[in-house]
């Protein structure tokens, strides 16, 4: 899913965190807010912690019995999940697809966003709105024509083909977001760079993108998690087991062994850890002045 | 000359990919929807005119799926937004461990639909499921409700899962919007004697209107394409009763190979959603003035 970031030009003069009287007159209600925060976190993390807990329970103990905490903790599920079912293969495939999607999307979107942010040219706004318009139509609705297209291009069952589709679906939003960010960078910076003889690409690579690092990092996280999680498109386009991504591999795994809950939960934990790590890393940039959702 | 070409050159890669894999398929889909389309090489694809579209209006499963998709939207979207706004209001100002609580609320968003669909299936399992154990505790005897095998309970599981996984997304956007409200504004309203409810109605809500529009539009579009959780938890069953428009379209295309029919369904839905998004943006914008 998509999200927006924008450089925070409208940052209010007073500090945002910690000192203000807040929305609820917080000084007085710190305690009740803390209780609610704990409850919210428990509900949010509960099912995931439950999955983590079950992944250490021997598989035999998971059928028909209510287990909260493993009775005989073991890592056997992890060993089985990683070694059987080509799971390590799916993991690598997902990693390749997600990283490639992030890199290609960010590079192409930066180029396009730079054009929209810094140049005047005929049909500029029209082209921009054609990009934006696709945000109003669910990507999944294009599954059939995309399937036929990939068939014609001999890109069915290909990780590269999958990456192209993911890039296409992530481009509009990334361009939209980076354009806003690039436009907020003062032109004077660029001019002094140009005077030193830097070309357009140099300006983009050594000035604009580094200055937009928070936005680039946050949007990379969104693209990564979207590609890492994507299921229906991969299910449709990929048919040989050696090309499965994690979601397809996991769905296939539970479909085939409906009783192997232990290994499934272990596999799920392994599949979930990377995306959470990426999210936690990106948190640093969430904090450094990226104001999300500043959409008018 | 070269300066004139620069912006176009910068746009070339993105435009090429976008035209090939997004724009062209939109038109291709309309085209296919008028045929009895077969994917097998060399097969005959007779022209059908509007008959795929006419068939849609006589298909009882389309009616069920439309209702299910509609219910999914009107139930999950408002609840996600309300909970997301509530969580954002609680966490917008400093609290010990702020960053942890914020991250915790967002984490379900980045997890995989396939994984959490099966975790919820397990929680709602008829035998040994935590939910039945909890219900049993209140009922005073063991129960074995087949949550995911009956229409309404299966719907409920799908809604609960979707709300649980979605809240963090509304939360993070509302959080940013609330973080951006100058605190002085709130203070001066309070000093003028405004009640907390009035502060919300007249200061907070107007300031986050843009975020509300954005969240509403994108959540509705997201909810309209509900697929994985239904596909994994019920496969649209029992007897197509939990089918959504997207799972039904998928089944028609990739299980029944009725590509023309499925393309007609997808085209129709695309037009409806596009019109809806445009109208929604317009209405919510108008309130701005």
Structure, explained:
The complex is a heterodimer of chains A (296) and B (289). With 296 residues, chain A is mainly alpha-helical. Chain A has helices at 26-54, 76-83, 87-118, 124-133, 143-152, 159-183, 187-195, 200-211, 213-229, 232-237, 246-256, 261-287; strands at residues 5-7, 290-292. Chain A is 66% helix and 2% strand. Chain A has a two-stranded antiparallel ribbon. Chain A starts with a strand and ends with a strand. Chain B has helices at 2-32, 51-56, 60-91, 98-110, 113-123, 130-139, 151-179, 183-191, 196-207, 209-224, 228-233, 245-254, 259-286. In chain B, 74% of the residues lie in helices and 0% in strands. In chain B, helix 3 (60-91) runs antiparallel to helix 10 (209-224). The longest helix of chain B is centred in the N-terminal third of the chain and has 32 residues, at 60-91. With 289 residues, chain B is mostly helical. At the A-B interface, helix 1, helix 3, helix 4, helix 5 and helix 6 of A face helix 1, helix 3, helix 4, helix 5 and helix 6 of B.
Features:
heterodimer, A: about 300 residues, mainly alpha, MetI-like fold, two-stranded antiparallel ribbon, 2 strands, globular, disordered N terminus, disordered C terminus, B: about 290 residues, about 75% helix
């Amino acid at each position: 899913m998509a999200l927006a970031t924008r450089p925070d030009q409208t940052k209010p003069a007073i500090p945002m965190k910690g000192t203000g009287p807040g929305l609820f007159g917080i000084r007085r209600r710190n305690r009740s807010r803390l209780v609610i925060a704990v409850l919210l976190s428990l509900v949010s993390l509960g099912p995931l912690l439950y999955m983590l807990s079950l992944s250490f329970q021997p598989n035999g103990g998971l059928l028909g019995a209510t287990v909260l905490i493993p009775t005989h903790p073991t890592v056997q599920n992890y060993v089985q999940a990683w070694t059987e079912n080509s799971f390590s293969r799916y993991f690598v495939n997902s990693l390749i697809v997600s990283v490639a999607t992030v890199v290609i999307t960010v590079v192409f979107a930066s180029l396009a966003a730079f054009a929209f942010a810094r140049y005047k040219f005929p049909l500029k706004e029209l082209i921009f709105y054609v990009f934006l318009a696709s945000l109003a139509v669910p990507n999944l609705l294009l599954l059939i024509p995309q399937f036929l297209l990939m068939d014609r291009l001999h890109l069915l069952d290909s990780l590269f083909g999958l990456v192209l589709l993911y890039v296409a679906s992530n481009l509009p939003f990334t361009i939209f977001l980076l354009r806003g960010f690039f436009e907020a960078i003062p032109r004077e910076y660029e001019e002094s760079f140009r005077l030193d003889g830097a070309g357009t690409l140099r300006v983009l690579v050594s000035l604009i993108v580094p200055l937009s690092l928070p936005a680039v990092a946050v949007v990379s996280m969104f693209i990564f998690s979207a590609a890492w999680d994507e299921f229906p498109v991969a299910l449709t386009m990929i048919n040989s087991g050696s090309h499965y991504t994690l979601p397809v591999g996991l769905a296939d795994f539970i479909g085939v062994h409906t009783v192997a809950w232990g290994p499934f939960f272990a596999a799920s934990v392994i599949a979930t850890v990377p995306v959470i790590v990426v999210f936690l890393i990106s948190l640093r940039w969430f904090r450094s002045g990226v104001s999300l959702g500043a959409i008018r | 000359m070269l300066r004139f070409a620069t912006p176009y050159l910068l746009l070339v890669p993105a435009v090429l990919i976008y035209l090939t894999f997004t724009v062209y398929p939109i038109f291709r889909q309309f085209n296919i929807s008028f045929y009895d389309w077969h994917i097998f090489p060399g097969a005959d694809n007779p022209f059908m005119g509007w008959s795929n579209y006419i068939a849609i209006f006589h298909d009882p499963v389309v009616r069920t799926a439309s209702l299910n998709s509609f219910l999914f939207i009107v139930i999950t979207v408002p609840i996600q937004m309300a909970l997301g706004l509530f969580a954002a209001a609680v966490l917008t100002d400093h609290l010990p461990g702020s960053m942890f609580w914020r991250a915790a609320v967002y984490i379900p968003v980045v997890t995989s639909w396939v994984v959490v669909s099966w975790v919820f299936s397990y929680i709602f399992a008829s035998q040994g499921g935590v939910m039945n154990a909890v219900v049993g505790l209140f009922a005073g005897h063991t129960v074995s409700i087949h949550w995911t095998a009956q229409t309404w309970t299966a719907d409920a599981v799908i809604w609960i899962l979707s709300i649980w996984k979605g809240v963090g997304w509304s939360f993070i956007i509302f959080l940013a919007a609330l973080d951006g409200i100058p605190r002085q504004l709130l203070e001066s309203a309070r000093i003028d004697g405004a009640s907390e409810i009035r502060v919300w109605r007249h200061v907070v809500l107007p300031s986050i209107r843009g975020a509300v529009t954005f969240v509403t539009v994108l959540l509705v579009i997201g909810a309209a394409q509900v697929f994985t959780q239904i596909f994994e938890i019920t496969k649209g069953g029992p007897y197509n009763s939990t089918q959504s428009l997207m799972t039904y379209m998928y089944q028609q295309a990739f299980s029944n190979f009725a590509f023309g029919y499925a393309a007609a369904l997808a085209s129709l839905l695309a037009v409806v959603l596009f019109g809806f998004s445009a109208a929604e943006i317009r209405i919510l914008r108008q309130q701005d003035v």
